[in-house]
Design a protein that fits this description.
Layout lengths: L16 E6 L4 H18 L3 E6 L5 H15 L2 E6 L1 H11 L5 E6 L5 H5 L6 H9 L2 E5 L2 E3 L2 E3 L2 E5 H16 L3 H13 L5 E7 L2 E7 L1 E5 L2 H6 L4 H4 L5 E6 L4 H12 L9 E6 L1 E6 L4 E6 L2 E6 L2 E5 L4 E5 L10
Helix pairs in contact: 1-5, 2-3, 6-7, 7-10
């Protein structure tokens, strides 16, 4: 979603690229991506510097280093990886005054796809070399940025089980789907939540609270809020108490893009949501595919400043699939 903010400063057409590359996702893949990016940048006469993430726990440090270098000489910070890597680098860039670019390399790539950024690496680099800044809305939970979604309850567990399955069977959408079905078949614990949005305050029991900031993902799973999401808004979803078989049915509806038709789903739009899980001082929150422990209450809102995203020119963008 593009924010309706005032015009952002445009980097110079020859601005250097500081590329944060996730080396933990596979040595051969990372080396291959680096070679492609370096070759294309060299051909165009663009200066490029790679900053490799050696381990997942080092990503924040590497991203902060990239931002510091980019600020020093008017450069652009580029994240290469899946939605989790893109999120971590965006967290460092937001509010820094630097421009931000992505070269998607993950399984679903909702953020890149929503903005027409090619999934093919060579095409994405070509688009980056001719890109210009556009302001993009960022969601937050307790001040931590998210580009696609944030959630608690069943969804963090689904992600943990999915990562374990991917380590064993490889990364693919099929593996992710089968892992999700196995997790849902095991059932889910319910959370008791007190939630407040404006003057609306209520209590509910649910296995999942999901907050979305990506219209493409919301539309893909069949939520009407994907089309009606406006600037400054986020979309919330809760599952009313349901059996494991009902949860499996919801997963099937989501895969078919019909989740919004389910009777035991409640979805809504909001600008600020305060969530207080009863009896919990800390809780697991899934943020763009990564799991964090956060103190309660949880406050969901939209970051006051947009993310300055480098978008390819219209002719190099790909249609949303």
């Amino acid at each position: 979603m593009h924010a309706s903010a005032s015009a952002l400063p445009q980097p110079a057409t020859d601005a250097p690229l500081y590329i944060v590359l996730n080396g933990a996702s596979g040595q051969q893949d990372a080396d291959g991506a680096r070679a492609i990016i370096a070759a294309l940048c060299t051909q165009s006469g663009r200066r490029v510097e790679f900053l490799r993430i050696p381990r997942p726990d080092q990503i924040a440090r590497v991203a902060a280093d990239a931002v510091a270098r980019a600020r020093a000489d008017g450069g652009i910070v580029v994240a290469v990886g899946g939605d989790g890597t893109l999120n971590a680098v965006a967290q460092a860039v937001l509010g820094s005054g630097c421009a931000y670019a992505v070269l998607p390399q993950g399984t679903f790539n909702y953020f890149g796809r929503a903005h027409g950024i090619p999934q093919d690496l060579e095409a994405a680099v070509q688009g980056l070399l001719r890109a210009s800044v556009a302001p993009v809305q960022v969601g937050r939970v307790n001040g931590h940025a998210f580009l696609v979604n944030a959630s608690l309850g069943l969804y963090p567990r689904l992600l943990e089980d999915r990562e374990e399955a991917k380590r064993e069977f490889g990364r693919s959408r099929g593996v992710a789907l089968l892992s999700a079905l196995r997790t849902l078949a095991a059932g889910a614990r319910r959370l008791s939540l007190d939630i407040a949005s404006g003057d609306d305050r209520r209590s509910l029991r649910t296995s999942t609270l999901f907050v979305g900031n990506n219209p493409l993902q919301l539309e893909r799973i069949g939520l009407h809020e994907g089309k009606s999401l406006r600037q400054g808004e986020l979309a919330g979803l809760v599952i009313r108490p349901a059996s494991r078989w009902a949860l499996l049915g919801l997963a099937l509806r989501g895969a078919l893009g019909r989740l919004g038709e389910a009777a035991n789903i409640e979805s809504f739009l909001f600008r600020r949501l305060v969530v207080s899980p009863r009896g919990r001082r800390r809780i697991k929150v899934a943020i763009d595919g990564e799991i964090l422990w956060m103190r309660t209450p949880l406050v969901f809102d939209v970051a006051p400043e947009p993310l300055p995203l480098m978008l390819p020119p219209p002719e190099l963008r790909v249609a949303v699939e």
